[in-house]
Design a protein that fits this description.
heterodimer, A: 4-stranded antiparallel sheet, about 0% helix, B: about 0% helix, about 55% strand
């Protein structure tokens, strides 16, 4: 398995633009998580899905953020409009339904909003 | 929700010495405690985990201990090597839920 695949690896965008981050989880993993990492706030959970259904989105900062999982092999995180404070590394991770429960993280998307 | 505190934030050791990183958690129903290693510019990677029905687990030079009564768990790295230099994160779930709350991280530097 190629692991969790994220794209793009780097994204530089202007304030106000729409940004879409993509994730392909490991095949067979039922859980998918979106985390944001910054120096100030560390690793923060934004949202997670179980069998393509959003379970907890309480970490989504505000209405500018949205996430979808249309099928078991694809998820998107969208920011519209983007702001400089959204600059961070966004990680997608997946986890199986049965033990061991450990997450496998993707390589992350480094987002810079200028 | 779950609150995870991690100490120290930075740790420097001489090559060959041991390193210990400690975490506390707040939710007494939490049942799974993983540790992740993140090298500079890379993804966090799971290095070891422990379930709540086990007090200690070892894997070569790394070990994790859990004290459920005190709600704390620790990572022990023996015979440290320069390639152990990285940021280490502990994590705990909210009860038996699947989402993890991460500690703030420990920057470990192994000096040659």
């Amino acid at each position: 398995d190629a692991g969790v695949i994220q794209s793009p690896r780097h994204e530089v965008t202007e304030m106000g633009q729409e940004v879409t981050l993509r994730c392909k989880p490991i095949s067979g993993h039922d859980y998918l998580f979106w985390y944001r990492q910054t120096m100030m706030r560390g690793l923060e959970l934004l949202i997670y899905f179980n069998n393509n259904v959003p379970i907890d989105d309480s970490g989504m900062p505000e209405d500018r953020f949205s996430a979808k999982m249309p099928n078991a092999s694809f998820s998107t995180l969208k920011i519209q409009p983007s702001e400089p404070r959204d600059s961070a590394v966004y990680f997608c991770a997946s986890s199986p339904r049965t033990e061991p429960y450990g997450y496998t993280f993707g390589s992350g998307t480094r987002l810079t909003v200028v | 929700g779950e609150n995870v505190e991690q100490h120290p934030s930075t740790l420097s050791v001489q090559e060959g010495d041991s390193a210990v990183i400690k975490c506390t958690y707040s939710d007494s129903a939490s049942n799974y405690f993983p540790w992740y290693k993140q090298e500079l510019g890379k993804r966090p990677q799971l290095i070891i985990d422990i379930r709540s029905n086990v007090g200690e687990k070892k894997d070569q030079r790394i070990a994790v201990t859990l004290n459920k009564t005190a709600k704390h768990f620790s990572l022990h790295i023996t015979e440290t090597q320069p390639e152990d230099s990285a940021v280490y994160f502990c994590a705990a779930p909210e009860g038996s839920a699947r989402q993890l709350t991460f500690g703030s991280g420990t920057q470990l530097t192994v000096l040659p």
